[in-house]
Request: fold
Amino acid sequence: MLKKHKKIPRSFYDRPTLEVARDVLGKELVFHSKARKLSAKIVEVEAYIGERDPACHAHRGKTKRNAPLFGKPGFSYVYLIYGMYFCFNLVTEEEGSPAALLIRAGHPGQGIETMHGNSPNKKASQLLNGPGKFCRSFGIDMKQNCLDLTSDTIYLEDRFVEVEEIVASTRIGIREGRDLRWRFFDRNSDSVSQK
DNA sequence: TGAATGATGCGCT
DNA sequence: GCGCATCATTCAT
Reply:
């Protein structure tokens, strides 16, 4: 059987985070959830890099919560924010070097009916246009923390999509580190987050 | 159309 | 207790 798409290997994540950030736009995130296959094209990410980045969860050292950031690249890092929303991250850079990419927005691919079920009364372009909404529509919670992104459950696929215009801007929703332009998105997507 | 606010839980200064 | 890598709703303009 011909394999149309290529699962992205760990070496992809084992690089400087800002490089991975630009390369990850246009890639397809695939998630096998309870016999259903969900996928989305990544159109917006933010980089959180190292203990010296005041907005990175690793800023105050390693704790039980942020431990995945310090682990091997190519794993997931999920956390609860504001008591009700989850945020999904891809861990980058070598073990012991805490860094990650927050998935802020995606364009729905397979399983869009399931996403609509998880987030009722939404247009397709509003299902994944924000980190909290992305997780809600995908059904991601703490069970998806620390998963191997080279496993068969959840992984990135290269569909060889060209992303014409990548824009870098400041990160959103943080108090410190707003001078850094570590948010990257696809200007031509209608699914990037608001504001 | 934009600003203000409430929901809600967990880890930490 | 406080402060969050958020979102939906309400209220003002």
